[in-house]
Amino acid sequence: ERKKLSRLKKTPAITQDGGYIALLANIELPGDAPAALDAGAVGIGLFRSEFMFMGRAGHLERFPSEDEQFESYKKTLVAMKGRPVTIRTLDVGADKPLDEDEQTALNPALGLRAIRYCLSEPQMFLTQLRAILRASAYGPIKLLVPMLAHAFEIDQTLSMIEQAKQQLRERKQKFDEEIPVGAMIEIPAAALALPMFIKRLDFLSIGTNDLIQYTLAIDRVDHEVAHLYDPLHPAVLFLLSSVIGQGRKAGIPVSVCGEMAGDTKWTRLLLGMGLQEFSMHPAQLLSVKYEILNSDLRLLEPQVKKVLRATEPAAVTAGMAQLQALVS
Ligand code: PEP
Ligand code: MG
Questions:
Q1: In the chain, at which end, N or C, are there fewer CB atoms within 10 A of the end residue's CB?
Q2: 158 near 79, Cβ under 8 Å?
Q3: Does residue 197 have a pLDDT over 80?
Q4: What is the pLDDT of residues 115-153, one digit of tens each?
């Protein structure tokens, strides 16, 4: 099975009816890039930069320096041999604590995490932004921002990026003036107020792990409620298809980089919603590609519409079974 799949490494992910689907990899450290390349990823869709910060913080001065971060981002870019690398700015807090002892919030998933934390630590954030920008002089880098919900947070983030650019201009250091900036769509409020994001940003990436957590109000790391974590809840399906649909209509690229993108159970569902970009753990990539090669969007789309119209879980399950059974 593994061997059969490995023959697909260089095969482009094209559906039976000729639709090209971009398959990218999620990584946590620069050292993961070779595995991404080896799996045939066309780029990095999510570099979770917080892993370079975790376990060493506690005090801001112990964060990786600008040069150290710059070297890591550049190294990733070089390892990907010209393919695009999407670097997500620091997404700490909740399930990814900087320092176990320092987590004091009662509800950390609802607390000062991700972009909220970054905007409260402007020097730390500017350091990371300058490092990412400097790396962008060496190849295609995209900048992805986690956990945005408010228009003013997007605006504040964009103005920090502009500030970092200005600092580099003053230092006469090179960077990509046109670096694309995108948002993770992982808070229901963001999914429900998408025009605010489309207007301000260059691309969107749906974080299904958090989107499901916040939509269903279940802590993603609490085993006691794990059975309530349901990607097929009609509310989750509505938000997913709404974001993908609005993105397509507006001509802004939308990807999914949460665990759903790497699980073949959901490949046809996402394809039928119109998704054209998936980012996942490198180990999942070839199985997802296999599923795509055996899918026909002309058959999937009407069946997924049926799943989306279903109002009862039993009807969703039945519709999903029919979707899986389609042969092209
Ligand atoms: C997500 O929330 O789906 C996601 C991709 O980000 P993380 O799992 O790192 O929160
Ligand atoms: Mg997330």
A1: N
A2: no
A3: yes
A4: 999 999 999 999 999 999 999 999 999 999 999 999 999
Distance 173 CA to ligand 2 centre (A): 32
Based on the number of CB atoms within 10 Å of its own CB, is 150 exposed (0-12), middle (13-18) or buried (19 or more)? middle
For the chain, what is the mean pLDDT?
A: 95
Q: Looking at the CA of 208, name the nearest ligand.
A: 1
Among 321, 205, 203, CA closest to 269: 321
Is the distance from the beta carbon of residue 50 to the nearest atom of ligand 1 less than 6 Å?
A: no
Nearest CA to ligand 1 atom 4: 207
Query: pLDDT at residue 255 above 70?
Result: yes
Whether 48 lines ligand 1, by a CB cut-off of 6 Å, is: yes
Token couple for 125: 């954030």
- Name the maximum alpha-carbon separation found in the chain: 61
Compute CA 161 distance to the chain's CA centroid, rounded to the nearest angstrom: 20
Question: Separation of 114 CA from ligand 1 center, angstroms?
Answer: 11
Single out the residue of 239, 195, 201, 214 nearest to residue 147, CA to CA.
214
